[in-house]
Amino acid sequence: MGKIDTNLVADPDASIIAPGSPALTRLIDAIAADAAARDRGSIQTQEAIDLIRAARLGAFRLPKSQGGGGASLPQLFELIIDLAEADSNIPHILRNHFAFVEKALRTRHNAKYARWLGDVREGRLFGLGASELGIQNIGDGDGATRLDPKGGDFVLNGTKYYSTGNFYSDYILVNGKTPEGEAITARISVGQDGVNVDDDWDGIGQRFTASGTTTLTDVAVSRDDVLYIADEDVKLPFQATFPQLYLTAIIAGILRSVVKDASALVKRRDRNYYHAVAARPAEDPLLLQTIGSLSSAAYVAEASVLRAADALGAAFQSVIDGRLDTSLFQEASLRTAKSKVVVDELALNAATQLFDVGGASAAKQSARLDRHWRNIRTISSHNPRSYKARALGDYIVNGAALPSIAFF
To answer: Which of 9, 157, 199, 253 fits 85 for a cystine, CB–CB 3.0-4.6 Å?
Structure first.
C-alpha cells in the first residue's frame, strides 16, 4: 500500500492536508497507485480509507483557525475530481461525510453540530442512514426508522439502504422519526451494539463503495446525540444540490482517467489495422482525433462542475454570513442540473470511445477498462438526466419552479 508521511499520524498539527500541499499530492498518488489492486480485489479499500483518516482529510473544509485544511468549496470539488481520477470509489465513500461537514459549517451556532465537528477535526468520518425502500418518492421522507424513548435516553430501530460510506465510517447520522412523527437525526457509533452495516452492494459499478444495508436494532442513543429537525432555524432551499454536484464531480474525475487510459493504449500499441492511414497507432490521425475529443470532454466536464461549485460556494457563504440569498441557491441548482445533463452523456460516450483506440485487446477483462463505463452508468443512475432536462425545460419555457428536494 502507498504511504504518506508517518508524522501525519504522530503530530496532530501536521496531519491536516491543505489545498495544494505536497502531502495532499502524496496522498492522492498513494491512492492511485493501488487503485488497480483494489479493483482486482487484491487489497482492501479499507487501507485507502485508513490513509485518509490518518491524514484527517475529512477536515479539509474546516477553517484553519479550527484545525482544518481551510479549503474553499470549489477547492473541495477540485479534490473530489482528483480523488475520482485516482479511484472513483474513494470520493464516493466520502460523499455523505463531506455533505455533513457542509451542513455543520452552516449551523455552527448549534452546540451539537459544533461538537460533532470536533470529531471531524480529530479525523473521524461520518456516514448517513437516509434511504428506505418503502418511501413512495425517492429522496422524500424519513421512512419507518423510529426513535423511541428509553429511560432518560432513546433507542433506534430501522433499516437503511444504499448507505454509502457507513461500512468505513466512525459515526452514522440516521434520519428517523419519534413516535409523534417528529423528524430527527440521531448520531450513532458504527461499532456499538445493535448496529449492523453489511457490505452487500451488488451494483455493476462503484463496487467498492460498500453501498449496502444498515440495520439498527435497539441501538442506544444518548439524548445529546439527537437533533430535532424542527429546531434547525436555517431552512435552506435546494438542499440536495451539493450531493448531486458531488456525483457529477466524480464522473468528471473518471473522465480524466478515461483520457489517461486511452492515451496509454495508443502509446503502447505496436501495430495498426492494414487499412489505417498510418502504420503506427500513435501517428494515426483518426486515433489522435479520438483522444483529442476525449480530452475535450473531460475539460468541459471539469469546467462545468467547478463553475457550479463557484455558485454553490457563494450560496453557502451567504448563510454563513447570516444573509441567506435564495437566488444564489437557485443559480447553483440550475448550473448543477445543466452540468449533469451534459456530463452524463459526454462521459458515457467517452467510456465507450475508449475502446475505439485500443483494438480487440482492450476488451480483455484483465485490462479492466469496462470499469469506467460501469462506474459512470452507476453514478449517473442516481437521478436520470431525463428528469433533470425536463425540469430545466419547464423552468426555461414556463417559469416553473425547480424541484426543491431529491437531487436538485
So the answer is: 253
